[in-house]
Design goal:
The chain is an all-alpha fold and about 425 residues long. The protein has helices spanning about 10-20, 30, 35-65, 70-120, 125-140, 145-170, 175-180, 195-200, 210-215, 220-250, 255-260, 265-270, 280-310, 315-335, 340-375, 390-410. The N and C termini lie far apart (about 55 Å).
């Protein structure tokens, strides 16, 4: 029998962090980084990983000075006041809404792709996106338990298909493609800035930090290990994914993917031109579909609970129906109006995520340290301090501002996009 009272394990906490970080956002990485190609993309992965790990450790340091169970909302309200709490709440809501839209777009494109492969029939993108969204949002409406059961099955399938797909794709890497020996004259480094917000989105897991403090209690060493190991797993998965795509798809082929909106099915179609074997392609298609579906369920459940609490809807069928409409109607309608916005939406999510996962943790750390210094708080045995002193705070603020500014410049077409 399972011992429900057993102590939390570092392995379990690591899986929470890795599972939260890894999702459909990774599907956008090869496309958004096509301009800067492999070496710059790997460098940006390491930079983003280190910044997001630092910001999560900053949040952990602050969280440890509160009772386990204190939420992100409590930390921001207590340390930064009502204004920043409002900004934080709006940022979280925006990220969830825009991610749901991205997953409707990506899921609909995969339904179209799978239908064409299996049935030789191309359904309208509007219908495909609607079918995908209604099916999964219905699971969220029914109960959290249904989401739990579906997620376990799909995450297991996602892991297996990822292993099969990556083992096959890595074995078929062409060094001439990976090293871009057929250089088309476009520089590499200039395209780094447009990818910043998308890369940041792929390492977002910070809402899980208060959950880990609640789960472990005040055990900073174990929680910090979970943050490090979990993010390293995500870094490894993204590195393998970028290597596999860049080694199998010509750099110039990404121009067509980007021109078509950068949706998931477009990336799969580009990869299929260079893959040998139907099994490998089916595994890649299965991984892409499951990645989008599990991400939809995770973000959808978070948005559903957030809006139910914000609007005061009860847990009756009528109350859950009201929550369903408020939470899912806007992104589903947007997905039907503009079905090819996956890549753009992931970038916008990164802009909002920059606020609550980088800038606000840095401001929280600064305010909390000032408050504790004023109170002359004595050091405790379980105290945890982020390495780098005040330089960590300033580094995170600069990084967050650079990401935000770069995305805004990109929106106004003031940054170059590889196309």
């Amino acid at each position: 029998m399972f011992n429900l009272n057993r102590k939390p394990s570092v392995f379990g906490g690591t899986m929470i962090i890795a599972g939260t970080a890894i999702g459909a956002g990774m599907l956008a990485l090869p496309t958004i980084s096509a301009g800067m190609w492999i070496w710059y993309s790997l460098g940006l992965l390491v930079l983003t990983w280190s910044m997001m790990l630092l910001s999560s450790q900053a949040l952990l340091e602050v969280n440890l000075h509160y009772n386990p169970g204190s939420s992100f909302h409590t930390l921001v309200l207590d340390n930064l006041g009502k204004f920043w709490n409002l900004i934080n709440g709006l940022s979280v809501a925006f990220v969830l809404y825009i991610l749901i839209y991205a997953y409707v777009s990506g899921g609909g494109s995969m339904v179209v792709h799978i239908s064409m492969v299996a049935l030789d029939y191309e359904p309208p993108k509007l219908i495909a996106g609607l079918f995908f969204a209604l099916l999964l949002s219905g699971c969220v409406w029914w109960s959290t338990y249904v989401v739990d059961r579906f997620s376990i099955v799909m995450i297991g399938g996602m892991v297996l298909t990822f292993i099969f797909a990556m083992s096959g794709m890595l074995s078929e890497i062409k060094m001439s493609r990976l090293l871009d020996l057929n250089f088309d004259g476009n520089p590499y480094g200039i395209f780094v800035f447009v990818a910043l917000s998308t890369y940041l989105t792929s390492f977002c897991f910070h809402a899980s930090v208060p959950s880990l403090v609640k789960y472990f209690g005040k055990e900073p060493k174990k929680i910090n290990q979970c943050l490090i190991y979990g993010t390293l797993i995500a870094l490894f998965a993204y590195t393998i994914w970028n290597l596999a795509c860049d080694g199998n798809i010509e750099r110039t082929a990404f121009k067509d993917v980007i021109a078509a909106g950068g949706n998931v099915s477009h990336l799969i179609e580009a990869a299929s031109l260079n893959l040998n074997g139907a099994f490998l392609l089916r595994m890649l298609e299965g991984f892409a579909f499951l990645a989008v579906a599990t991400s939809f369920l995770g973000a959808g459940l978070g948005l559903f609970d957030y809006m139910a609490d914000l609007c005061g809807f009860d847990d009756s069928r009528l109350g859950r129906t009201k929550t369903l409409i408020v939470a899912f109607a806007p992104p589903i309608i947007a997905g039907m109006i503009y079905p090819d916005g996956f890549l753009l939406a992931i970038g916008w999510a990164g802009l909002a995520a920059t606020i609550w996962s980088v800038i606000i943790p840095a401001l929280l750390l600064r305010a909390n340290r000032i408050a504790r210094a004023a109170q002359k708080a004595e050091s405790q045995t379980n105290d945890f301090r982020v390495k780098g002193g005040n330089w960590t705070i300033y580094t995170l603020l600069v990084f967050g501002c650079v990401v935000g500014v770069c995305h805004i410049l990109f929106v106004f077409d003031l940054l170059p996009m590889y196309k």
